[in-house]
Amino acid sequence: MGHWFHTNIVEPGKLPLLLALASFVLTFVITRTITRLIRAGKGPFRNVSSAGGVHIHHVVPGVVLALVGGFGAVATGREGAAAALFAVVFGIGAGLVLDEFALILHLDDVYWSDEGRKSVEVVVLTFSLVLLTLGGFSPLGVNELTGDERQNRGVFVLTLAVNFLFVLLTLLKGKFRTAVIGTLVPFVAIVGSLRLARPGSFWARRMYRRRPKARARAGLRAYRHDRRWNRAVRRFQDVVGGFQERSPLRVGHGRSDDGPPDPR
Q: What is the pTM of this model?
């Protein structure tokens, strides 16, 4: 195990990336645990993150830590104790920021709402991409080229262009997650680009406008796909993000209007 770790992680310079990923996941888990305890009114945690009556979301220190860790990592390189330290700092900051990704996206405190599920989705997607990178995958299939093919600029550029085209087609067909994963695993993008587009996507609006049978097939396939997977995805998000919990308590971490309490 030690030999494998040194050969595949330490020697290629991937240790900072592994430390950043570990601190990222750990920070997200700890943050979600604390916010769920605050929401339920349990434990020693209280909503003390305020200054001058203004609530400070944890995305704020997250941005600061991510900037410190990112600039520090660029300045120190990929080796040494300093690089490892800044990788951990960056991972902590990224975990805090992406835990409130939905808040940044909607410019509203949607932490416990359905819109807040986007934060969990982005965290899982980020974890998957970094894990693939640790596994040796490179953007647009560069890792699949031999040394001679990389030296041949024509083959290199053509490979990048073709794989990018598949990713772009997948994105135009409304399959964002598939397109993102496809940047590291080209086969996923190829499959996504060849299958029917999702209803409402740019591709469906343009290409299926005069093809009622294609529109019907696309709608039926999307319905079956969503019916099969959405329930499992929501259950996973409920377990990870705590969306199933309900509490009448208000501890000052939600909306300040007279609507339903949002006691995070």
A: 0.80
